[in-house]
Amino acid sequence: NETQELVDGSLIDLCGATLLWRTAEGLSRTPTVKHLEALRQELNAARPQCPVGFNTLAFPSMRRKDIVDEKQPWVYLNCGHVHGYHNWGNRDAERDGREGRERECPMCRARGPYVPLWLGCEAGFYLDAAPPTHAFSP
Fold it and tell me: Which residues pair with 18 in a beta bridge?
């Protein structure tokens, strides 16, 4: 069931550079920036909580996309679990008195990078106007 035909939303790997193939028809269905802001507000209105710290998480507005907020969701890249920011779980760093990027997930104990999660603001990356369900980690 494989084909070499490019369809809207195909990812192309060119020696480490990932390209997203979009058709004119596909681009005509992408949401507007206003619609993306409405989706962000809808996500935040659901008041998602950190499963460990029980604090409410919220994606920052598109204008503040470069500033990490205290309610910013953070994700463990190896397992995909989303939490609020915490500075524990970094056993090697805690022992040495330094802070590193690799942490241990409190849900599944997988170790890996722990980074802030941002809602994408480039409408061309959205294949439809539905609420976002997945994160892209190249």
Answer: 13
Two structure tokens written together for 86: 């915490």
Torsion on CA atoms 19, 23, 25, 29, rounded to nearest 10: 0
DSSP 52: T
Residue 74, H or E segment: strand 74-76
Other C-beta atoms within 10 Å of 46: how many?
Answer: 10
Q: Specify the residue for token string 């802001």.
A: 37
Take residue 82 and report the two structure tokens written for it.
């989303």
22/124 Cα distance (integer angstroms): 8
Q: Render pLDDT for 67-125 as a digit per residue (tens, 0 to 9).
A: 777 889 999 988 989 999 887 766 554 455 445 567 889 989 999 888 888 887 778 78
Are the C-beta atoms of residues 67 and 58 closer than 8 Å to each other?
no
